Amino acid sequence: MSAQQSVACDRSSSKRGGVRRPLRMLPLIELAVLVIMVAAPVALNERPQLITLITNIAILSLLAISFDLCWGFSGIMTFGQALFFGVPGYVIALVGRDLGLSQFWLTLPLAMITGLLLAFVVALFLLLGRRPTPIFIALGTLTGSYAAERLVSGWQYVGAGNGLSAIKLLQMGSYEFVEGTAFYSLACVILLATYLAARALVRSQLGLVLAGMRQNEERLDFLGYRVQVFKVLVFSFAGMISGIAGALYSYHQGFIGPGNMGPGLSTQAVIYCLLGGSGTLIGPVVGTAVIEILTYELADIDSIRQFWPVFLGLVLLSIILFQPSGILGIAVSTRERIGSYGLRRKSARQQG
Amino acid sequence: MALLEVTALTKMFGQLRALDGIDIAVRAGTFHGLIGPNGSGKSTLLKAIAGAHAPTSGTIRFDGTDFTPAPPFERARAGLSLKFQITSVFPELSTYDNVLLAVQSREGLPSLLSSRTRRTLDSEVMAALDRFRLADRADDLAGELSHGQQQWLEIILALTSRPKLLLLDEPTGGMSPEERRVTGELLRPIKSDCTLVIVEHDIDFIKNLCDYLTVLYQGRVLDEGSVGQIERSTKVQEVYTSRV
Fold this sequence. Notes:
The complex is a heterodimer of chains A (352) and B (244). Chain A is mostly helical. Chain A has helices spanning 3-15, 26-43, 48-73, 83-99, 104-127, 134-153, 181-203, 205-215, 217-222, 227-253, 263-276, 282-298, 302-306, 308-322, 334-338, 343-351, and strands at residues 164-165, 170-172, 175-177, 255-256. Chain A starts with a helix and ends with a helix. With 244 residues, chain B is α/β, with parallel strands linked by helices. In chain B, strand 4 (57-62) and strand 5 (65-66) form a beta hairpin. Chain B is globular. The interface between A and B is large, with 37 and 50 residues.
């Protein structure tokens, strides 16, 4: 039997139902998260502080997704993702304070461009070398994040250690977004749009290049791919997503401070992503929700609040040691997480 | 004119002189074998040609252009393709996706982003898998293939970028005699498409496949010529054949 006949035979046996294809979990989890996102404001209508919490989760999920694009999909270990979150947050705060501008159509693109350009510049330094090591990139991004935090802490024009508060409200025409359901809806729409864009990217043929880059960078080079350019592209795109998150965070909190661009928040983005499950896009959203809900629930207990960073560190350590595929790894197989990219995926699905 | 010209190529690893003034010319349309005892510099030479090792001195001209300082991706785009000695596939991708990744390396960024060529490249991917008897393993992870099949997949990856010059580093390493025989059969037809430089320890395999041989010894060219000339070479008999 020739190979082609054999494939044809496999396909026909699938048609007859001879092969049971495993249930795909990721779309179900995505759907469940979407339902929860839509239902949450209705269920929590009487508790505004919880609307604030879920808005924060939606915003920080964007930061976690940006890290997932870098690490989970492309193998770029960045420990400074908050840099591209905090700087755009400061920029829109300053634009509001000094120029009186806070129109959605103006300041959100400004934040995106700021995040993108900043990430692009950092990537030029860190990623365009012949073959920068992962540890070099991790330390480089961490240093950038730390240096920015220290710089801002001592700079009076941007509020020094106190940061910038009373940030002008985000406006769409004459409508002002205050904390509450409207802001939550806006954050969710942006999260959904970003998620779909990121999903389209990682499932495209370009996504296959990223998967190859994560698994065997050297081999990809010998196939004719200019790997560093792909790294710069994905890093910059992730910076842009962080920029949107930073802007939304500033508007929502009415505050932005040095800590919002430092290693603390950068590490938190790593934990969100790894806890939920890296390389899945939806995992970081789940991880962010778990950490933020735990933080909220346990914040009132002094003895726990004091040791919260230690707890987060232990969470990170436990994931790395015992469950590297995160919470989603319990339900989602490695094969499904990595996915497939060719035409056969579609035909296989049609048969199943 | 030679497709590949290596002139006075030297590669030092610290104090170790792995390649010592190598001169090689590979004519287009030939199968050129590199043989020699372990440590003679065969793999180092192949890696230097492909761009994995930067030479300490000397030049590498490919298709009339000096590629000595060029990074691997530029050489690959110019038509120079390497199959690694140790299998270096993408283990967590399906066999199909491994080949698609190699085939789509000719596409530009907008095309990759829009997945415009996913459908059109399908037949090319399946034809390559079929040619190397891997079509029925298309959906399996590359890491789950047998060693011999991973070697074939490696050859497909190197071939599907449509190279002018294919560099094969021990393509039958770790294969059974039957797999070696099949590999030879699979490689022979590519002669019409590209030139081949092959490093191999299996002398029978290389004798059956190659037109021309270069023998390396201690980082230098010991002798070169047709298979018959090398078989009769007293230098090779003294230094090489007695050791293998």
